[in-house]
């Protein structure tokens, strides 16, 4: 005598229900594996028990199965004009609500429409403003620091260029002085020549604080009375000849 037909309905006994769930879950997963292997199908299976426990199976990966499902669902919505209209209406409603929230948040950040806010909401708004102000200050300080470093770098370059220029001018001056010197006038020229070459000032202006840093680079002044010009030497020689 064969087994009678089983009525498909909820099992009242909790223990029997859990045992039946465990057996049929294993059988369902086995059938899903066989279907994937025999038919080369992409299979994804998601099961939640009555207690909320998750069981899943996918022959590739559950993520790829869900992504493929979403793509097919979107394609079906596009092919159906009525579904497409409803879809874009929902998207427009969502974007409209987001825009309204952003506008309200912006007005609150500007100190407007603060009525109805609780102490907690006002405290959160104050903290948000403090964080925004801190970020602005950090960005401003970074820009000022970069500009000051760039000015310092340019100042060092100019300083080195002036040092090299000073050396070149000094060498040129010594060569010209040697050409102007002879035995009769050697005693009239001082052994040390004070050369006035450069006196420049670089001003670094720091924005906001209006601090000015001066970098002065000076050389000794030229003693005009210590240089004997060729005209003066010629006049003295003529006076000696006349005498």
Automatic annotation (TrEMBL):
Localization per record: Nucleus
Entry's Gene Ontology cellular component terms: nucleus
K-box domain location: 85-177
Regions annotated as coiled coil: 85-112
Domain MADS-box positions: 1-61
GO MF, one example: RNA polymerase II transcription regulatory region sequence-specific DNA binding
Pfam family, one: SRF-TF
A biological-process GO annotation: positive regulation of transcription by RNA polymerase II
Domain of life of the organism encoding this protein: Eukaryota
Keywords, sorted A to Z: Coiled coil, DNA-binding, Nucleus, Transcription, Transcription regulation
Protein name: Agamous-like MADS-box protein AGL21 isoform X1
Organism name: Cicer arietinum
Organism ancestry: Eukaryota, Viridiplantae, Streptophyta, Embryophyta, Tracheophyta
